[in-house]
């Protein structure tokens, strides 16, 4: 069995929590895509919802499936957002932004009555900060901001697009991926420090946002943490 089985199982299970008349926040990434696939199917069977999307990719996938995607600036609250994560610990602290969409994802999650997290089992970690911490930086003056981050002792690199150019988010900004030598013992402090750095838009740390966590396993089983 592959990781795709686990992602698909988690993404598909989340659709059971979606009810008529909800405004549904669509996350970004491969696991969120499985959720969108299942949501499209459920809508074809009669479920009536509207969506808001955390990325152009998710919006376009939903529209292709004939789901009505609302303008984010036309709403003030979301019922449920379903989104993936790169790492999640036992306190449901997460790192997101592997797909470069964490700022929009956080805006949706924070506006939601519940954020349902859909992950494959490899995303469960003892301490977050094992891989990379994406930091979205305002395009204007981004080398200056990068300098300011590095002067605080953080090491990292610009995220690159497939063609080798600097990757830009849907907001038109670069991402500075920070790599820790070891998982930070107090990630909340790193988040605050980085967020207080002029030019930083947001980090990929997500605290106090996750509701139910749907974990897909490689044998196709699903477990849910409440
Ligand atoms: C995008 C994200 C994704 O949710 C995260 O990278 C997980 O992706 P995947 O489900 O493909 O493993 O934060 O910005």
Helix content: 25-40%
Q: Which sequence of SSEs, written as H and E, runs from N to C? A: HEHEHEEEEHEEHEEHEEEE
Helix segment tally: 6
Named once each, the bound ligands are: ribulose-5-phosphate
Strand order of the biggest β-sheet: 3-2-1-4-7-13-14
Largest sheet: 7 strands, mixed
- Arithmetic mean pLDDT: 98
Shape: globular
Terminal CA distance: 26 Å
Strand portion, in percent? 25-35%
Structural class: alpha/beta
Query: What's the gyration radius in Å?
Result: 17 Å
Please tally the β strands and state the result.
Answer: 14
Unreliable stretches (pLDDT < 50, length at least 5) are none
Properties at a glance:
226 residues; alpha/beta; four-stranded antiparallel β-sheet; 28% helix; binds ribulose-5-phosphate
Describe this structure in words.
The protein is 28% helix and 27% strand. The chain is α/β, with parallel strands linked by helices and 226 residues long. It has a seven-stranded mixed β-sheet with strand order 3-2-1-4-7-13-14. It has a four-stranded antiparallel β-sheet with strand order 9-10-8-11, with helices on one face. α1 (3-14) crosses α2. The protein starts with a helix and ends with a strand. The relative contact order is 0.19.
Quick rundown:
The chain has 226 residues and is an alpha/beta fold. It has helices at 3-14, 30-44, 56-64, 102-110, 142-151, 187-195; strands at 23-26, 50-53, 68-69, 78-83, 87-88, 94-95, 112-120, 133-137, 155-158, 175-179, 200-203, 205-206, 210-216, 222-225. Helices cover 28% and strands 27% of the residues.
